[in-house]
Amino acid sequence: MTGHAQKLEVSSLTVTGDGGRRLLCVDSLTIAAGSAVVVRGPSGAGKSTFLYALAGMIAPETGQIRWGETDIAPLPEPARAAFRRRNMGFVFQEHLVFEELSAPENAAIAALYSGRADRGRIRDRAAAELARLGLDGVGTRRSDTFSGGERQRIAVARALAGGPGIILADEPTASLDRDNADRLARDLVTLARTEGRTLIAVSHDPALHERADRLIDIVDGRLLEAADG
Amino acid sequence: MDEIYHALPNWAQDVLVTLGLLTPLLVVGLIVLRGFHVGPLLLGLLRRQVWISAVFTALIAVSVALGTGLIAQERGLRQGTARAADKFDLVIAAPGSEITAMLAAVYLQPSDLPLLDGATYAEIAAHPRVSLVAPLGFGDSWRDAPVVGTTAGFVDHLSEGLAAGRPFTAEDEAIAGARVALEIGDSFAPAHGVGDAAEHGAHGDFAYRVVGKMPMTGSPWDRALMVPIESVWSVHGLANGHGPDWDGDIGPPFSPAHFPGTPAALVRAESLGATYSLQAEFSTAQTMAFFPGSVLARLHALMGDIRQVMSVLAVITQVLVTAGVLAGLMMLTRLLARRLALLRALGAPRRFVFALTWSYAATLILTGAAIGLLLGIAASFAIAAAITARTDIVVAATLGWPEIHLVAGFVSLTGLLALLPAYLTMTRPVITDLRG
Ligand SMILES: Nc1ncnc2c1ncn2[C@@H]1O[C@H](COP(=O)(O)OP(=O)(O)O)[C@@H](O)[C@H]1O
Ligand SMILES: [Mg+2]
User: Fold this and answer.
1) Which residues have C-beta within 8 Å of that of residue B354, sequence separation ≥ 6?
2) Structure pTM?
3) Confidence of residue B277 (pLDDT cuts 50, 70, 90)
4) How remote is the CA of residue A170 from the centroid of ligand 2, in Å?
5) How many domains are there within chain A?
6) Which tens digits make up the pLDDT trace of A31-56?
7) Beta bridge partners of B267
8) CATH code, domain with A152
9) Domain containing A73: what range?
10) Would residue A65 count as lying in a domain?
11) Ligand 1 atom with the shortest distance to the CA of B431
């Protein structure tokens, strides 16, 4: 894990979906290393598509996605996965965890496929992040015994366990109640800030908007800088 | 290499073949799993899909059991029938069907055979290279046990020493086979004929007394009662094989003029070479001489064709089941698609997802094959017991190397085939699967 916050530069990016439909079009975007950015927009606007493209989970049709020195757009899938593994933590909208595994196993899932040398570090950091999120001492309970909020925190611990320089979160608080949502919003931004990570979160949550360095709106697959950002 | 291989003992060759058959699987397994720790997720998948996994495992187990059971059974039957014929070096009978004569003389199956006359029998008995010859007398029974007239010398040869008691020395004495429900000291009256047609009391008040018990031989003789041949002839109103100057000692020599005939003479030669020359010498217009072992070998060769059909059927079943299981695995991996996509979205290498899917398939295959092997052994034990109960031929149902080789080959082949569904999961689009 490099663990460095990375600057993002996107240019001439287009993503098309099935049937050649244009899902996303970004002429130019720069996000400073270590900043916390929140992306908003109506449902179906292309927010998730944007995050997936930044994460290298989908290959864009054209353009560049430059994280630090690396343009991931032209890379083949395995190389993009490797970049993600080393530099990114991703939090999905619906607390996607492996229900049969315990919280520590889920948070340290990357230890299963990382090199022997990294495994111990991933497990230690996963345990530390769980503790930071108030989930220490949960033992070996299966994850499907946890509440939605707890599962989302397990997913956040998993995203942070690799010590990534970049955190991407797709509506991380959407499936949580108010209290849990506030708490997670605070945690995410704090965790990013205190360790100088770049955070890009898609969210409608005012709690996150308040804390963001910058707000970006997406409408119909196009980026608009929010005036109040 | 070849020379070294052939110099090895059989078991070592078999172990080598097994390892050779398993090598593709082991190599693939090592390469696929190298550097990964699939255990926790693999257990998770198995637990999540416990019923589907169980059904697939059961399917594989049944097909493996069928294959191994058939092979073990067929070999057991072949060995069992051969062992039952072990003690019968050479049979000389009147010309006719060798198989009928063998079934009667070796396996005690009732049949009407033409008889050898006294002169021919005496010629065999007097031959310098014959070390033991015995006549046979069939036709009587006690309950389900055939009463077989012969000589004490042959009983001794067949039993390699009695388990208890002593040889018969008088016409009303008998030796019981190991599985006959008579003990030393018990008496029984022979019925004329065998089975349902047996006439009880046909031989008046005549009764035998058991004076000895044979050990288990694993042949139909375990269910027989052996009595002096003289008594069989006498109770049927025939000459008893001895002339007027008989000293009263039962057994050989017999007087050709007072010899009522025997359906077969059981012959033991002084050496293997002698056995062959006797066979040649007594294959004439008047006599038929044959080795039950080689008649059996011819029968087994005939059965060999059936065996091949059976093996082909077994392999086809296994291939079909495997194809079904793999098709099922493909559907199953679709069920798992979202979780596999999540792993890849998190940055797991494609190879890890490949390793996870493959190890899942390999677990089902290995577990199924192991259970199948045990089931196959259990099934062949059951069938062997049934055959033994019906025929008294002891069929040993043991796990043999051919079954192990079959299973090793099956496991390797299916393990390699399972690379295909594993590969397909690897090529799925991540986001499509993740969105579900
Ligand atoms: N593979 C695809 N092919 C075609 N259309 C897609 C595909 N994936 C998503 N879409 C569509 O693209 C649009 C943007 O989706 P998404 O990025 O999920 O929106 P948001 O996250 O802003 O709600 C939606 O209309 C969605 O239905
Ligand atoms: Mg979305």
Assistant:
1) B32, B422, B423, B425, B426
2) 0.77
3) confident
4) 7
5) 1
6) 998 899 999 999 999 999 999 999 99
7) B90, B133
8) 3.40.50.300
9) 8-226
10) yes
11) 1
